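Forum: Protein Structure Q&A
Topic: Joint prediction for protein chains with partners

I've read a bunch of threads here and the consensus seems to be that you should model interacting components together rather than docking separate models afterwards. I'd like to see that in practice. Below is the full input, 869 residues plus whatever partners are listed. Could one of the regulars post the assembled result?
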Amino acid sequence: MRKLFIFLSILTIALTACAIRSNSDTSQVIETPSGTAPTEVQPTTVQPAEDDLPVRGGTLTRAITSEPTTLDPHGAASSGQNVILPYLLDTLIYRDIDNTYKPYLAEKWTISEDGKTITFFLRDGVTFHDGTPLNAEAVRFTYQRIMQEGSKSPLVSSFSNIESIEAIGENQVVFHLKQPSSTLFSALSTAYAGIISPSAVEKYGDSFGLNLVGSGPFKLENWQSGVSISVIRNEEYKWGPSILKNQASPYLERILFKVVPDATTQLMAFQSGEVDVIFINQPSQLEVLRNDPSAQLIETNLNSLVYLGFNVQAEPFGDVRVRRAIAHLIDKDEIVNTALGGIGTAAFSPLAPTLPGYDESLKDEAPLYSPEEAEKLLLEAGFEKGADGKWVNKENAEELSLEILTSTRAPNEAIATVIQEQLQRAGITVSIKLLESNAASELAAKGEYQTMLWRYDWNDADVLNVYLSTSRIGRTNRSFYSNPALDEILEAAAMEMDAQKRNELYSEAQKILIQEQPWIPIYSPKDYLVIRNTIVDYIVGPMGRLVLTDAWLKP
Amino acid sequence: MKGKTALLIFQSLASRLASILMASLLAFMILESSPGSVIDSLVGDEASQDQIATLERQLNLDKPLLSRYAEYMLHFIQGDFGTSLVRGRPVVELIGERFLNTLVLSFLSISLATFTGFGLGMLSAMKYQSWIDTGILVAVTIFLAVPAFSGAILLTQIFSINLGWLPVVGGGSVKHLILPTISLTIPTAAVISRLVRSRMIEELRQFYVITARAKGLSPKEIWQNHILRNALVPALTFIGIQTGHLLGGAVIIETLFAYPGIGRLIVQAVFDQDYPVVLTSVILIAVVFQILNGLVDILHRIIDPRVGESAPVS
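Posted by a regular:
Agreed with the consensus. Here's the joint model:
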């Protein structure tokens, strides 16, 4: 026995010793310059570089919460994939922070008179990482792959309006549409519409998702399952979007994406210097980083909204007066301040404030927090307050109560709890049903719920069409809300190519939805991008996309 | 006698095999009867009915539940573990390295826990009711009360952020193993030391100890040959079960340290309802668990010959 103990103690000591040694070889010292105040940069700005010349080289490490299941842009989508793809793939057009489209792989484009034919003119001399040319045929191939049977691409429904795609010569791609479409551009600017190498698809077959070949500023270098994915500079690169200062290969040599599922661990990894870029949305973390001189905090524009959606088929929520009454009882500012620690903005419109078409002037028409107003509406709708202070339906003596269905994803539970508290204060009993997100989705899709606390992340105002138009009932319209007047407006907006007229249509749509409240908009979430202060000249695009072609590391 | 032993071995193997099979069937049924579907993980909200139907056909999800299970198990026996529905990669490829990582982490921490647990437990028992015993008791109680994850965060704060000695996240090197190992070791070692201590104190009060002393055995001989031997049995049982838990249940620690183990993979696969990954992992863990407990049984017989002869010792 003693021999065993001695053996084990030696083993332990040896292990510890070699661990400490291997650590001291590679440990890096992170210098934190003194006297630099933590900076909070507005989303549109490019961090100025103090007239310094960019330095080439270095690795930037970024934390991702979930490991992509595949890198194939037409495979199962995941948040990790969405972060990595923009560095590996180029798209035809680039969406700027002001939601305008800039030339990228397409130098220019024309739209026919009837809006049904769109022609993209590709720039010359673009090659994939495997050396093959990126031409019109490669673009056609990529999009055909999205449209083929069994595709898992998130763009399938956006592309359903495409009749055919034609490649003319080396650099003309023509889209023939069934109807004019104002939403196609936003679809084409996402990383899921990035152009992939046809010869690599053929070469790798089923394992293309592990060996993605695109034309982007970085190439896939290494994928260590469960740990990290690294991408390395594409030396040939000279076809970045027109907004970039650097029209050559990136200054950074490598980007390393580390899989770190836990938010607390991400913060600790930033503090220890192991990662340079993280996303945070917890108030306590924000406090910590505000006092960290090595962190630049950037508020990102997410195009997201959290709302309480009604199932209008579940009585009594088919009655607009009941829906409005509940809207009057929810104090959104209180939700933002207590459940979210102030990170987020109380919302009144079903469109996220950063989406084109959002109409701030409608704020006065929205039901504000007012228990008196709510009481009036409920009395009108045939309810009365019982002796115990609960609202009861006069006809069938049923108590007014509701269930909130939501997923376990933070901070849903906290928000639902505040809503519960607010409604119960007014005499409406609320129960909360918390489920894992796939399970919650399934119940919602079947309509087996009364209200759901949900969130969308969508980069176009067409989101209203997707979630609230009659034609999507049984699919994405989980509210079973149907309003022919709204359908007409949304359909027209989806085909309207003139931005001004389109915005007017969406303003109409918002007016109706604010009136009818099939959704009670709660707040628009905010995330903070945290970037180490040694990194300069990066660009933050819509939905927190971090463009790093211009970026470099201060030595 | 030989025939009897062979029969016993056969019985034990058969029951272990049956429990592995039951575990896999149970895992499959629970997974498939829970709400949601793998399709939700493959395509987003806006998937059309056509798109969903095509995928269901491609993935054989339109077939009845039990026939899918039977088909999967038939392939499994032939060494074909299938392909992940969500990741489109062979399950072996996905699980292989990660399972190895988890094995390393679990065995390292269970060995360390056994070593320190026994050390502390014996020391407490030998110095029963002295200040050493009290000190160890207080320390062990604290370690038992602190949840693994908060202990882990504290360790990271000290060793990674303040001292900068060890990395916070990742895997693949010895450095990356240290913090997760210690975090897993502490609570396990605490339990083992409690078990060993109480069992030893109990043994000390037995009459055979007095008899042994009367026989003229030295205290050292009594400790080594009698008390330690008897205290080993319950501790071994616990260690066998605990290792099984560590294999599948180290998820919290794996998530916290972003350690590429199998726990995280299983949790993700359960959320995705990716049954080939879940089933293969469950079977793998069940097999290792059964092997370990088989070993524990054999060790029992060696340590305590009475075990084989009469009714099994609990």
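The mean pLDDT of chain A is 87.
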